[in-house]
Design brief:
By secondary structure, the chain is of the alpha/beta class. The chain has 5 helices and 6 strands. The protein is globular and about 35 Å long.
Length: 140
């Protein structure tokens, strides 16, 4: 089930995907404050994929959790890349199964280990916008 939309500038739309409602609210709050895009939140990979399939050109960025019931973030990203190979996808996870190398090998545009501080997210998003992979874990 899709949750609320937040407003942002222009026609840019970003998708946030996490089964944890608290995490979605936290992420929506942080990303909305950046004022870079309209934010749409989804509580499952399946719901996010259905929305993406309905209008694949509408989304500029996807930020997804890894561990979710049903379709996890890796499976979701594979489906999204099959539809739109150039879509930017940021993986967030608290799982020890991922590090920068694994996330890059899976094709993600960026990687963020949970828990994280908002400045780390901002660094990752800036790097992704510049076209470089980032984990945001190092301080600048």
């Amino acid at each position: 089930m899709k949750t609320e939309k937040s407003t942002g500038p222009g026609d840019k739309r970003w998708m946030l995907v996490d089964d944890d409602k608290g995490a979605l609210i936290f992420m929506r709050t942080i990303v909305s404050k950046l004022g870079v895009a309209h934010i749409e939140c989804f509580a499952s990979g399946e719901d996010a994929l259905a929305a993406f399939k309905a209008n694949p050109g509408a989304y500029e960025m996807v930020i997804t959790d890894f561990q979710m019931p049903g379709m996890d973030g890796v499976e979701l990203s594979r489906h999204l890349y099959a539809i739109a190979p150039k879509i930017k996808i940021l993986l967030m996870t608290g799982s020890h199964l991922f590090n920068d190398e694994v996330a890059a090998r899976e094709g993600f545009s960026g990687f963020l280990k949970k828990p994280f501080h908002p400045p780390a997210l901002q660094r990752v998003l800036a790097a992704i916008a510049a076209g470089t992979f980032s984990s945001g874990q190092t301080q600048k």
